[in-house]
């Protein structure tokens, strides 16, 4: 074995990649070659010094670095979903904007509007007492009746839907309502009601 | 992996788990605290942005090491022109053992802690060309196996072996007087 070969084996040996029979050959070379023995010795000490560096303490990173990492993360999920949504549904997005504007204006309206409002046909046949709206016995309301911010008392008939918004209803045993009876208390459902029904009421004081 | 689902808390745990490893790697590669901290930050940012692309057949540590290592190599390349290890080494070993510690690291504490020998090793490692420095840092300071280094750098094991051998020889010559 020449010294060049021996050097290659030395490195393999240090990498733990030398077969036992080759280890023997290398050791035989060391026995006859002081230069290679010295070289191997130096390599080994170099390696010790390198491993020794690992034990050196490194001042840890400042805590704010970790905080910065978290803070610097892009808020990608929300952003992407929104962008994708706009991209795929431009028309719906416009509709959503419209609903939002509606929602805001309707909400403010809902908060302000505390007056009794009644909507329906033949309103002059109904009895209004304060915030009480009475459908007298024997009277037939020929259509939908809507009462907002008041109490609906029905003794007669409603040939349509009865809707009470932010109020109460009292249906007498004689009452008959052919359509749906709906009570709306929350701003949200009221909003949907307003969007689906166009509302032009008659106000009573 | 939870963090993939964009779970911030899971990602924070990932940061806790790997930040020191990546910081040490970067610090040994760049020999500069501030740059090392920047690398840690950039590494996690990349990990976060590319979570969908992470191949779960691969070890996560391999993947994050690769990202961190590449960021370090990029910085080293920008920093100074590379020179060939094959060329005769310029023996500018002006060992006052001081000049090679970046000035911002020269606190009384580090001066006290680092022996002359340790400073020499640091200087020797720092003078290695990037491709050798990378394998030497991964091998000795992160104690990765040759196979693991090959996975991290996505290079054949034989290439890694050659680089470790050359790196060792380079350092041996550099440190000869101290051995
Ligand atoms: Zn020999």
TrEMBL record, chain A:
Q: Which residues form the Putative zinc-finger domain?
A: 3-36
Q: Name one Pfam family in it.
A: zf-HC2
State if Protein biosynthesis is listed as a keyword.
no
The record ties this protein, via Gene3D superfamilies, to: Anti-sigma factor, zinc-finger domain (1.10.10.1320)
Keyword check for Transmembrane: yes
Q: Which domain of life is it from?
A: Bacteria
* InterPro entries from the UniProt entry: Anti_sigma_zinc_sf (IPR041916), Znf_put (IPR027383)
Question: Any idea which UniProt keywords this protein has?
Answer: Membrane, Transmembrane, Transmembrane helix
Q: Which residue windows are transmembrane per the record?
A: 91-110
The similarity annotation says: Belongs to the zinc-associated anti-sigma factor (ZAS) superfamily. Anti-sigma-W factor family.
Please report the name of this protein according to its UniProt entry: Anti-sigma-W factor RsiW
Organism per entry:
Paenibacillus selenitireducens
Provide the taxonomic classification.
Answer: Bacteria, Bacillati, Bacillota, Bacilli, Bacillales
